[in-house]
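Last lecture ended with a question: if I hand you only a sequence, what can you say about the shape of the protein? Today we answer it with a concrete record. The protein is Enoyl-CoA hydratase. Below, first the input exactly as provided, then the predicted structure, then a couple of comments.
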Amino acid sequence: MGVSTSSPDKGIALVTVDFPPVNALTVQGWYDLADALRSAGRDPEVRCVVLAAEGRGFNAGVDIKEMQRDTGHAALIGANRGCYEAFAAVYECEVPVVAAVNGFCLGGGIGLVGNADAIVASDDATFGLPELDRGALGAATHLARLVPQHLMRALYYTSRTATAAELHAHGSVWKVVPRAELRSAAVELAAEIARKDGYLIRLAKAAINGIDPVDVRRSYRFEQGFTFEANLSGVADRVRDTFGKGERS
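The predicted structure:
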């Protein structure tokens, strides 16, 4: 359980997340993921990173129960900072990152894949931000990298999800495959990238980030300010306390 790194092929680092039962990460889990991604990117032998997950789904966001156990704001601050670091670690990884997405990809999962360089998804994968149902805000920055602006807004306001096939139609998912073929398909794409010159692929990653029209770190940090406001106002606790208790009245 936790975050592990392996090497399935030459030039490829496979970073795997495993936090049963739904890959909802604790504060420490987000920092561990950030450290693993940064370490893989610094390895001169690595030319591409595959980010994958074990279990029922790719990522269910932050561990809500950890927040509910905290009587202050330490867990909230920790989760915000941890997510910020993990999302940035994907974006700033010195080599391209391929996300292999299975099952649900929610909340913080969108932050991860939205900052990835390419996405391979299983045919049962779904993507969405249930933040408004969890007393939080954020990651619209990253959802906007996956779908057009008005669809992003509608998904955000309704907390609905989009399928892998829908994202493939929008061009943000590279390939959709049966779940049993997901890992091999992601590694196959990573291997094609890893055959490029190691120095040149790092220059390419830096160059593409440099021409990005949106500063994802600053944009996401701006969103996080509204999460703090929601918590200070008390509305976040009121909404979050309904988590797992059915529909709100």
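Comments.
1. The mean pLDDT is 94.
2. Strands lie at 2-9, 12-18, 48-53, 97-101, 104-106, 118-122, 126-128, 161-163, 175-177.
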